[in-house]
Fold this protein.
Amino acid sequence: MTERPSTGYVLVRGLTRFLLGLFYTRIEVVGKENLPDAGPLIVAANHHNSVIDAMILIATIPRPIRVLANAPLFRHPVIGPFLRLIGGLPVNRRKEAGDDLTKNAALFEATTKALHEGAAIAIFPEGVTQPEPTLQPVKTGAARMLLAAEAGRREGPRVTLLPVGLVFDRPGTFRDGRALVQIGPPVDTRDCLDFSPAPPVASARVLTDRLRDALRAQIIEADDRETLRLLKLVEELWRGGEGEPAPDEASRVRWLQDAMRTYRSLLRTDPEKVSAFRRALEAFDAEAEASGLAGERLSRIYSVPTVARFAVTEGLSLLVTTPLALLGLLLHGIPYRLTAFAVRKIPHTDEEEATDKIAAGLLLYPVAWALEGWAVSALGGKWWLALFLLALPLTGFFALSWYERLDRVRKESRAFVRFLKDRDLVRRLRETRAELARELRALARLGEAT
């Protein structure tokens, strides 16, 4: 038996997909074949991006899922109503529950009941959210919930424990971030199910260790965000040096995981070479970014026909869409600025940035639109109000796409001007990149030999 989504859940999932599609440029899902269509399910994911992590699970997993969230979030004026609509389950951490052990006993009763009914629940077993690309110690909650649901059961489908890795690139940046949802194979639980009334602590620890290893297999762990950023630059050097086609996201994750393991191994065996390579890579990256020639722009050949075609195509597109885009900037500019101002004033950590932007926008955009609509109605009457309401989504789309196109033209133009004015810089950067690629392959061979 599989739980059917409620009307509230369907509405929240639709809104969530819209908001995430608006905020991120791409969200890719890998491993859908590992997701069971029916039966009791525990989705266990890493936790790097606050409430956004839960939103991504709701948006990308086809089945309705009941999300476990910290109890204070249910009292949040924006987030709380949505959690209640989707049937979220409050988790009382020690500082919230105090000495009241009945609160989390009620949680285990609720998860057991949901799993017996064939539902899916989502949990973040690290118990905390933090921005660094490392897996925090995994707590035993997911394993204990599974064992509690299986205790004494001899019939019915077994509970599936499914590891899900969430990998982000620029997670807090509007229209510049990306996300990967990597669904791994289910954790093997069969040898830990003894059907006893009280699940043994040893089984919970074994399952937790397996879950930890399964989660690590789905994500890219690095010492810090800067190391992860440089690791992705290393990948560009490696792929560019061989002229290989862009791999799929799952292959990229595996490559980056292998590269990180090699990096750590070489840090132990030959730290001086690794440190020297890192310093050279950082210097190259800083100069390429400062000159506007980072990434693929350094490889581009700016021939006259190519530049002319780009100028005509992009210029015409910008010109044709300018009237609607400017109207969109006028209608949506006030709530955009208000949201940016509010987020700057709200104290938040790095992993909360995207959550705060979406939450503030969800509150301020409708308020600003309502005030704008009231002003239009007062000045022009109901027909102008109807026209205003029709124009809101259309002009918003044009304003967003126009601004992104303008930003792309600006960056390409800057690179082209730099290419014309300073050919020596372009040549030197290309030579440095080629030398770094050679050093990288030499380090890779050294890593294989250790």
In short: The chain has two domains: 7-216, 304-428. The first helix runs from residue 7 to 23. Residues 74 and 84 are 7 Å apart (CA to CA). The two ends are 52 Å apart (CA to CA).
